[in-house]
Design a protein that fits this description.
Shape: globular
Strand content: under 5%
Number of helices: 18
Largest sheet: 2 strands, antiparallel
Number of domains: 1
Structural class: mainly alpha
Radius of gyration: 22 Å
CATH superfamily: MFS general substrate transporter like domains
Helix content: over 70%
Number of strands: 2
CATH topology: Growth Hormone, Chain: A
Oligomer: single chain
Order of helices and strands: HHHHHHHEEHHHHHHHHHHH
CATH class: Mainly Alpha
Length: 488
């Protein structure tokens, strides 16, 4: 049986949209914590360097320590979710987020701080897999692209809010990242305040239903019908939907890494596509903006308070772009958006590379001429804008959609793990590369943005408007046998 809303007009999800929006927003709180944690360290970098008296290489390892946990969490989240459910995974992540926030705010040594960042990273890795998978499974097909974009919207809001909070704390500390407020240094407050959204995430996880796919797999079909009516409308044929999902599940089993193997190139072709999307999303250097932007602007002569405001301004641009993509992703499709983004990012990064080539002075006393400084700032904002309307949100949408059901959780976990590894590579190499040649570093990122264009054109399928069951392509095909649709 192949259900689609077009054949069952009475099952239109519009009357349930309010409920599904709330469910999606609650699940996307994991994305908010992901964004908050990713960016909050931006405000603490220089203070941690000074507090523990470490060089750039060691500091980069501490900053990137969270990404090790992210990769482990992402790689294991799928199996955990298949065993205990999506909601329980969210609750575990919330507890780990909370513990990490407290531990990171009160470290007694550098290794202790790194350990708590790894624990927080594990929670982020779980949330990065469970959020998109859960949202894809509860969303009506007609709205799935926009609802899946909630994950990225939550991420960018988390980034922006963390920078705004950091700026407020910095002002309370009179511009000193190590200034004391209530017995703790400013940077400790920056890291510790994440307790608030972490607890909220845990509370919200108790207010949303389990994924209908998991409920059917667990034999709880009555519960699944209730959830399906909540998210797709009371008028749907819930029995038909349960039969359709159940039929798809009958051909599936708990996916493992072994299920992703096949063909002549180790993994199945569709798995390589997911890995490619994850790698290109990171190798354009987007997280350099969120991890190091304050330090970067300070390194070219901008004072700390202003550098925080510039970072926040970039986050506002990120939010605007994400709102735009939420309106466009289900209208013009996934492929056109990522192609537009790739072209825009390549050009913006090339302009930034040109501007940074005018940097003068030694470490600790660097500056850009006014014209080039303004150009670099504008180029950085355009880069973030093009990323946010494309690879930022759309990659998470695609990763939640492109994999066949029988391998979805394992494949999404692998793709997310690879994404975190690529993020780690960019994070730990940026201080060294930028110290060597900041302009050349941005040329490298521009080259990856340009290379993503032929990858999308040749490999990435369009998933707009399809149910997850309709996208259950054979997972055993050789690379040349996988159909690659032209842009629809």
């Amino acid at each position: 049986m192949n259900y689609s809303p077009s054949r069952h007009p009475s099952g239109s999800p519009s009357n349930a949209l309010g409920r599904v929006v709330f469910i999606t927003a609650a699940a996307a709180m994991g994305g908010f914590l992901f964004g908050y944690d990713s960016s909050v360290i931006n405000g603490a970098v220089e203070a941690i360097r000074d507090r523990f008296e470490v060089g750039s290489g060691t500091l980069a390892q501490v900053i990137a320590a969270a990404l090790i946990g992210c990769a482990i969490g992402a790689a294991t989240a799928g199996r955990i979710a298949d065993r205990i459910g999506r909601i329980r995974c969210m609750q575990i992540a919330a507890v780990l987020f909370t513990a990490s926030a407290v531990g990171s705010a009160l470290p007694f040594a550098l290794w202790d701080l790194a350990m708590w960042r790894v624990i927080g990273g594990f929670a982020i890795g779980i949330a990065s897999v469970i959020g998109p998978a859960y949202i894809a499974e509860v969303s009506p097909p007609a709205y799935r692209g926009r609802l899946a974009s909630f994950q990225q919207a939550a991420i960018v809001i988390g980034i922006a809010l963390s920078q705004l909070v950091n700026w407020a704390i910095l002002n309370l500390a009179h511009g000193d990242q190590r200034g004391v407020i209530g017995g703790l240094e400013a940077w400790q407050w920056m890291l510790g305040i994440m307790v608030v959204p972490a607890v909220l995430y845990g509370v919200l996880s108790f207010t949303i239903p389990e994924s209908p796919r998991f409920l059917i797999a667990a034999g709880r079909t009555d519960n699944a019908k209730t959830v399906l009516r909540q998210v797709e409308g009371e008028g749907i044929d819930a029995d038909a939907r349960v039969l359709e999902i159940g039929s798809a599940l009958q051909s599936e089993r708990k996916s493992t890494l072994k299920d992703l193997l096949g063909g002549r190139f180790l993994f199945l072709p569709i798995v390589w596509i997911g890995i490619g999307l994850s790698v290109f999303q990171q190798l354009v250097g987007i997280n350099v903006i969120f991890y190091y932007s304050s330090s970067l602007w300070q390194s070219v002569g901008i004072d700390p308070t202003s550098s925080f405001l510039y970072s926040f301004e970039t986050s506002v641009v990120n939010i605007v772009g994400t709102v735009i993509v939420m309106f466009l992703v289900d209208r013009i499709g996934r492929r056109p958006l990522v192609l537009i983004g790739s072209i825009g990012m390549a050009l913006s990064l090339a302009v930034a590379a040109w501007a940074f080539s005018y940097k003068s002075g030694a470490a600790g006393d660097m500056a850009l001429p006014h014209a080039q400084g303004l150009t670099a700032l504008i180029a950085a904002n355009f880069f973030v804008f093009f990323f946010s309307i494309s690879w930022g949100a759309v990659v998470w949408v695609l990763l939640g959609e492109i994999f066949p059901g029988r391998i979805r959780t394992a494949a999404l976990g692998l793709a997310a793990a690879v994404q975190w590894v690529a993020n780690w590579v960019i994070t730990v190499t940026f201080p060294t590369l930028s110290g060597w040649n900041l302009s050349a570093t941005y040329i490298i990122y521009a080259a990856f943005a340009a290379l993503s264009i032929p990858f999308v054109l040749k490999c990435v399928p369009e998933t707009k408007g399809k149910t997850l069951e309709e996208m259950d392509l054979p997972a055993t095909a050789e690379p040349e046998a996988v159909p690659v649709p032209a842009g629809r």
